[in-house]
Design brief:
Blueprint (H helix, E strand, L loop, with lengths): L1 H17 L4 H17 L3 H32 L6 H30 L4 H29 L4
Helix pairs in contact: 1-2, 2-5, 3-4
């Protein structure tokens, strides 16, 4: 029952956010609503949590953007072996930076929310990503012409 309530809140938030702005803004609004709901943030926690989370999310997005760029470069095997190897090593360095970032922000999150809320945060991020991917896949299937 509680799971259905969370899903309903998410879908309603996504629906209302769709009327408000661009794609990225709608996604961010839906993600924030789902996280706030699932973490059961108090007003005080929310005021302290969101600046920390937004900073973390921006840094993580930047790392992942660079990783995607490197992966794109490596998809072209026309590059020299040295360049491909350099990209592979840079990818490993970036993955380590992401792990280090998560460790750093775990400490910061625990100053604002409790350990159960942090665990729920990570779980909700994964759940949101799955819901978003499922929704995009459904949209893609709907847009494909039928034979």
């Amino acid at each position: 029952m509680k799971k259905n309530l969370h899903l309903a809140v998410f879908l309603l938030t996504l629906h209302f956010a769709a009327a408000q702005g661009g794609g990225a803004q709608r996604i961010d609004a839906a993600k924030a609503a789902m996280m706030t709901n699932r973490l059961n943030l108090t007003t005080e926690q929310s005021q302290q949590f969101w600046p920390v989370y937004n900073e973390f999310d921006a840094k993580k997005r930047e790392i992942r953007k660079t990783l995607r760029e490197i992966a794109g470069e490596n998809s072209s095997l026309a590059q020299s072996d040295a360049k491909i190897l350099a990209n592979l090593k840079e990818g490993l360095i970036l993955k380590q930076k992401e792990v280090d970032l998560e460790g750093e922000y775990l400490t910061k999150f625990l100053k604002v929310i409790n350990v159960r809320q942090v665990a729920e945060l990570y779980k909700t991020e994964q759940m949101f990503a799955r819901l978003l991917i499922d929704r995009l896949n459904r949209r893609d299937r709907k847009d494909q012409p039928r034979d």
